[in-house]
Design a protein that fits this description.
Layout lengths: L2 E5 L6 H12 L4 E5 L10 E4 L5 H10 L2 E6 L5 H6 L1 H22 L2 E7 L23 H20 L3 E6 L1 E3 L12 H11 L2 E4 L7 E5 H13 L11 E2 L3 E3 L1 H9 L6 E4 L3 H8 L8 H7 L7 H16 L8
Parallel strand pairs: 1-2, 1-4, 2-3, 4-5, 5-6, 6-10, 7-9, 8-12
Antiparallel strand pairs: 9-11
Helix pairs in contact: 1-7, 2-4, 4-5, 6-8, 6-11
């Protein structure tokens, strides 16, 4: 059986997708690649890989007989605005290399797009699957370009490339990594540690969100779907909840009544958030391959506080 390669395995999605894939397919069937140092607790197949190096990428795919690639390596939205040239080189250069090696070695490919692929002229409410995409951020430009490039490889080379437009993702495993929606992760760390949080977005900034277990499941369920049922490939809208910082804070107060939130708006990240939809229509994903989220706001908040609380609790050997 051919193996699975996950690039960007240390990132927000990869840190939870890799264990999920190993549980489904076996530890020896999933290769996790890291651009930085290997985590000390990594037990499975591991490669140090720079996806902007096509020869290194091809070597990994050939040596491990890779049949499916989940290409997650990328710079996120806020970081991409600070480093637009690097974002283009990394996000687009690595994707082109992955598409080429997938074409040569007959690999299926998963490419994560984003709510950032939309722009200020996109319908804000129940954003359709097929609609205007004119983003005004470098991150968004790379995501739209990635969607189009994957569609080109599907049409031109019959490559099995599939993707999802993720909303903001909330995870207790990976710490915030430079995304505009990272407030929805950081708020939980501050709630548990300090009982208060200063948010960089306005209290009424409404954006789609999803708990990471749902995002991971959406990725592998899409890749498991029979090709003949998919009228779209790149990329399906998926979502679970449309919330504001104030609504998320209220949900946290159901568990931590004294939690306090205040606001110091970051103009750059607020402008990015304002250019994105407030809610996406994911009816095509539901109809074509049976997508359905399992976590809403209340369930996500309870699970996040429980899991993150255990993660942040002092270890026995550290206690005085």
């Amino acid at each position: 059986m051919r193996k699975i390669l996950v690039t960007g395995a240390q990132g927000q999605i990869g840190s939870e997708l890799v264990p999920a894939l190993r549980e489904r397919h076996g530890a020896g069937s999933v290769v996790a690649s890291y651009h930085r140092t290997k985590p000390s607790d990594e037990d499975g197949l591991v490669e140090h890989l720079d996806c902007t190096d096509p020869e290194q990428l091809e070597d990994v795919v050939r040596r491990h007989d890779i049949g499916v690639i989940y290409h997650l390596a990328a710079l996120l939205s806020a970081v991409a605005e600070e480093k637009p040239q690097a974002a283009w080189d990394i996000n687009m250069g690595s994707l082109f290399n992955v598409l080429e090696v997938a074409r040569r070695h007959d690999c299926a490919l998963f490419f994560p797009s984003s709510i950032g692929a939309f722009g200020p002229n996109t319908p804000k409410l129940k954003t359709p699957q097929d609609t205007i995409q004119r983003p005004n951020t470098m991150y968004g430009v790379t995501k739209v370009s990635g969607e189009l490039l994957c569609d080109y490889y599907v049409a031109r080379y019959d490559l099995d490339a599939r993707g999802l437009r993720f909303p903001g993702l909330i995870s207790y495993v990976a710490e915030p990594g430079g995304g505009t929606t990272d407030y929805a992760v950081d708020i939980f760390y501050h709630a548990i540690r300090h009982g208060r949080y200063t948010c960089f977005l306005r209290p009424d900034t409404r954006l789609d969100m999803m708990y990471m277990p749902d995002a991971v499941r959406a990725a592998y369920e899409l890749m498991d779907a029979a090709p003949n049922v998919l009228r779209h490939r790149n990329a399906f809208n998926v979502t679970a909840m449309s919330i504001t910082p104030e609504e998320l804070a209220a949900s946290i107060r159901d568990h931590i009544p004294d939690f306090v939130i205040d606001y110091a708006v970051d103009p750059v990240r607020q402008a990015i958030a304002d250019s994105w939809p407030q809610s996406m229509d994911d009816s095509e994903a539901r109809a074509q391959w049976g997508w359905s989220p399992q976590f809403g706001l209340g369930g996500m908040t309870a699970d996040m506080l429980e899991k993150l609380g255990r993660k942040l609790a002092p270890r026995t050997e550290d206690a005085p």
